[in-house]
């Protein structure tokens, strides 16, 4: 099968701040490139000029939880239509640093915002005509970097100036982690849990193994 006739593949990276997602996304991208795939590396909130502007607001401005959720989903809609769907239609591999599970974890788990409202927004935003019949776009695989908030905080200490979310107390991140666990429990076939407390090489190997176990990457 030629690269362009392969179906697209959508993988999201999730976890609390400092769990190691950004450290490992490029290594997986290279593994796919070595296997002859075209890779689109992207992130949420962000990934388009408009969504990056919304990211600047979401990460730096105080706002109420519904406003925050709407900003995340507005950015997502733009990103989905302009970047993710076209890439999947071309047969590319999309590696996305966070997607909707982050909204359920941060706005739902962390902020305590209504999960049913988030589920409604998810349906509105991610029902795309490219799927026949039009259906909800979800990642084919979600790698959840599971790490204790205390270790993540140690890793982030001094690394950079904390944004609005990174400045939250440890209890917030315990709730975010609970949000991720609930999403995985609701859709276990889509998720692979990565033990992000391991040292870097072991995490990298676990990521590749999880992708292979789901039948991707040869
Ligand atoms: N397995 C590991 N062991 C120790 N330190 C690590 C490991 N993986 C990543 N780090 C370090 O932890 C810090 C946070 O990693 P990284 O930026 O990849 O996390 P992230 O999940 O992308 O965070 P954020 O969501 O806040 O952007 C970095 O300084 C990185 O070098
Ligand atoms: C997609 C998404 C993200 N967030 C939060 C989670 C992080 O604290 C920041 C993004 O920063 P990163 O360094 O790129 O990880 O935004 C959120 O609260 N809700 C979301 O839907």
Automatic annotation (TrEMBL):
InterPro entries membership: P-loop_NTPase, Thymidylate_kin-like_dom, Thymidylate_kinase
Give the classification, highest ranks.
Bacteria, Pseudomonadati, Pseudomonadota, Betaproteobacteria, Burkholderiales
From the UniProt record, report the name of the gene that encodes this protein. tmk
Task: Quote the Pfam families the UniProt record gives.
Answer: Thymidylate_kin
Picking any one GO molecular function of the record gives: dTMP kinase activity
State the protein's name. Thymidylate kinase
Q: Where do the coiled-coil regions begin and end?
A: none
Role, per record: Phosphorylation of dTMP to form dTDP in both de novo and salvage pathways of dTTP synthesis.
Does the keyword Isomerase belong to this entry?
Answer: no
């Amino acid at each position: 099968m030629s690269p362009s006739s392969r179906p697209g593949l959508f993988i999201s990276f999730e976890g609390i701040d400092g769990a190691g997602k950004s450290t490992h996304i490029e290594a997986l991208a290279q593994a796919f490139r070595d296997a002859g795939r075209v890779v689109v590396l992207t992130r949420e909130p962000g990934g388009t000029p408009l969504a990056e502007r919304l990211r600047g607001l979401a990460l730096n401005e105080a706002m109420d939880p519904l406003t925050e959720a709407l900003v995340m989903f507005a950015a997502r809609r733009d990103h989905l239509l302009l970047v993710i769907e076209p890439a999947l239609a071309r047969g590319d591999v999309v590696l996305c640093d966070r997607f909707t599970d982050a909204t359920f974890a941060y706005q739902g788990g962390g902020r305590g915002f209504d999960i049913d409202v988030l589920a409604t927004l998810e349906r509105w935003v991610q029902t795309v005509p490219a799927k026949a019949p039009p259906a909800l776009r979800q990642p084919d695989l979600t790698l959840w970097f599971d790490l204790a908030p205390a270790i993540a905080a140690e890793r982030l200490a001094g690394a950079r100036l904390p944004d609005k979310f990174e400045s939250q107390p440890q209890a917030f991140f315990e709730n975010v982690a609970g949000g991720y666990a609930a999403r995985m429990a609701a859709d276990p076939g889509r998720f692979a849990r990565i033990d992000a407390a391991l040292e870097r090489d072991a995490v990298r190997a676990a990521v590749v193994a999880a992708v292979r176990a789901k039948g991707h990457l040869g």
